[in-house]
Amino acid sequence: MTVEANPDDATADLLQDLLGAGVNRLSMGMQSAVPRTLALLQRTHRHEEVAAVADLVRSSGIPHFSVDLIYGVPGESPQQWESSVRAALALQPDHISAYCLGIEEGTRLGAAVRSGLMADVDPDEAADRYEVCDALLDGAGYRWYEISNWAREGAQCRHNLGYWRGAAWWGAGPGAHSHVGGVRWWNVRHPRHWAAALVQGASPAAGREILDDEQRHSERVMLGIRLAEGLPVADIGPAVPLVQGWLADGLAELVPDGPRFRLTVAGRLVADRLALDALAAHERAGVRLAGDAAN
Length: 295
Fold this sequence. Notes:
single chain; 295 residues; alpha/beta; Transcription Regulator spoIIAA; Arc Repressor Mutant, subunit A; globular
């Protein structure tokens, strides 16, 4: 059971309450160790607080501890990014996530980019930051198991893997998404509207969709290609010649324990493009997937 926490909200008493409730993983939004970057991301904590919470987690008895990093922040130097990764490693978590900055509409960052006050995320710089991160984490004994996630042996986040493997989950709360039995639904986002629906005995769902065989196949490729465990070559179908090209170009490698392939570091940088190419080949071939949902 994972709980996400801001570094400036996590106290010793809170951690003890979480442990008593069955929580066995605390995920902390460190984001960066650079004050300018934290300010740009509108974070309210200082890195010193992250280190203090790391000590609290170790003394609390919560066995798993994860930190999140953000890369691709405009104006951040390679040296600053490397210092943040090394600072995260110094905390000795057993799990580290690193996500590329996304500029969302309706945010201050979005307004700053739109007005020209701040540059947008540079994809080439973001790719460089990812490669640096992967090399540093791998050298410290953290192995990637999903494009944005690295863990020590035995510390992979099981519910995180469940999302990428297309497992079932039930989300509770405003804006939560769920996926059970090939049906996906999502709750209303505003807490007041969510609560009002519950008071009235009504469903808080804002919408739902039933996935057909084609959608399930597309998601299996789009999500599965992100995993270090690899994707069965059979799932690619007509795109097998593409995979052969990826292998030749160093974008993918075969997994020893079966007819599976996984992406190399170079392939991970263009994972979405490779998945879309595979799905386009499938569509051009006009392959039908009758009965695929049972697999």
